[in-house]
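Hey all, quick one. A colleague (J.T.) asked me to put the pyridoxal-5'-phosphate job into the tracker so the inputs and the structure tokens live in one place instead of scattered across chat threads. No bug as far as I know, just bookkeeping. Sequence used:
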Amino acid sequence: MRDLKPALDKRREDRLYRARRVAESAQGPEMVLDGERVITFCSNNYLGLAGDERIANALAEAARQWGAGSGAAHLVNGHARPHHELEDALAAFTGRERALLFSTGYMANLGVGTALLARGDCAFEDRLNHASLIDAGYRPHVGFQRYRHNDAADLDRRLARVESEEKLVLTDGVFSMDGDIAPLRDLAGVCGRHDARLAVDDAHGIGVLGEGGRGSVAAAGLSAAEVPVLVGTLGKAFGTAGAFVAGDNDLIETLIQSARTYIYTTATPPAVAAATLESLRIVEAADDRRARLTGLIDRFRAGIAELDAEPIDSRTPIQPLIVGSAERALAVSEALLAEGLLVTAIRPPTVPPNTARLRVTLSAAHEEAHVDRLLEALQRHLAGHAGSSVTL
Ligand SMILES: Cc1ncc(COP(=O)(O)O)c(C=O)c1O
């Protein structure tokens, strides 16, 4: 048996050790974490709905009717009326024939991989895809290729070289670490030419981008035929939990028959599905929240031009600042925290070497004063921890 301690010690030495904080208040821009009051710039609570009273009430009311748990997998007797209604509502929301609920986004992506990729097939992944999409493509006896980030021409060349019945192209809609948006029109065009199936994980776009928050795929004006597999998560802009895959009837039936992360797991509590139905109603009508979020993004971007860091060209609530080394990212993140500002340092191996970053995320629930305070503190601490080792 391997001794686990040396690897843990090494992680600590390399300053790559991951640790948790305990929240003692609900999710929101101002929280109590480990007993300290902080302003958070790190959640995916883009529309500020995680702590929304209407959604919490819907959850409580449904829990009184349906209980706390589903008690079984969907295919046994855990699939309840609220799950079914939510699937219908998500299908209508995304303009797809059907939608299928999964317990998490990670499981939704894995489910797509297990159901669609068989021996001899090939998965094509953007280099910066989220870990769950990468894991979805790693299947036994399945080819695996990573194309250059957002590079449809590279994908085109790779697709042309591979002969397989199923070519599954997987991409984030909005990239989770960089906040940039995939060139979905170009990718869909390339997939169309090679008879490849395009799967878009819109975890960070759904609820935020496009008309009524329909996401990056809708914003790009792409049809269900052009993007046959659409994944959305419910724990981010929607403020609840879970995920869904939307597509045509054959896709959804295939997932029900063979997605292992759908079949072999307990269904989410029906009350969570009922809460998400309420959330969906709010998300569709939340143009005011989306406009507010855009205003905050613009305010932040106007302020970062002055900073000793490399901003990424992102129009989404994910606004990373590349600062170079893991040490610098950590030092600035720790200095910010000492002032009550929580910004996560993202370090290799999550991102490539020497591109450690401060990953700032914004929420419609932030106030302008929160953003201004962060900008002022960033200015001081980035200057204080100079030695700008940003080389991209
Ligand atoms: C792009 C992307 N896909 C999927 C997931 C996983 O979703 P979930 O948290 O619901 O498992 C995340 C992050 O959590 C993500 O950033």
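Adding what we noticed when we looked at it: Residues 53-284 form a domain with the Aspartate Aminotransferase; domain 2 fold (CATH 3.40.640.10). The radius of gyration is 21 Å.
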